Amino acid sequence: PKGNMAFAGKYEFEGDENYDEFVKKIGLPSDKIEMGRNCKIVTEVVQNGNDFTWTQHFPGGRTTTNTFTVGKEADMETFGGKKFKATVKIEDGKLVAEFPNYRHTAEICGGKLVEISTSSGVVYKRTSKKIA
């Protein structure tokens, strides 16, 4: 695989673009929309070769963890808490996953974790800075 695949670390939410438009597009209920807006999510990534444990820590103590191996189907959980199966792939140094109603990519860019979710032409971008 090409690209800098060093995802391991802890990242804190720094900013996002198109949040409202995106979450409405994927049908997130309004209470979840409010909860997630400018949410200081801390993303923790443990990487061992192609094996990943990807944990998101939400303010208030809620966490979501997805464990996956690149190229193998895994049980995942969405933004809104829905369970589904996906196979995470690597394309040009990015992790790519097809969620039920959006496509998600993650890459390390200039030391930041940049995540992009696309649903029916709406592009949501979230940037997190490395804190550990």
Automatic annotation (TrEMBL):
Cytosolic fatty-acid binding proteins domain: from which residue to which, for each copy?
9-26
Residue ranges annotated as transmembrane are none
According to its UniProt record, where is this protein mainly located?
A: cytoplasm
Keyword line: Cytoplasm, Lipid-binding, Transport
Quote the PROSITE patterns the UniProt record gives: FABP
Q: Which GO terms describe its cellular component?
A: cytoplasm
Q: Which family does it belong to?
A: Belongs to the calycin superfamily. Fatty-acid binding protein (FABP) family.
Q: Which protein are we looking at?
A: FABP6 protein
Give the species: Onychorhynchus coronatus (Royal flycatcher)
Q: Report the gene name.
A: Fabp6
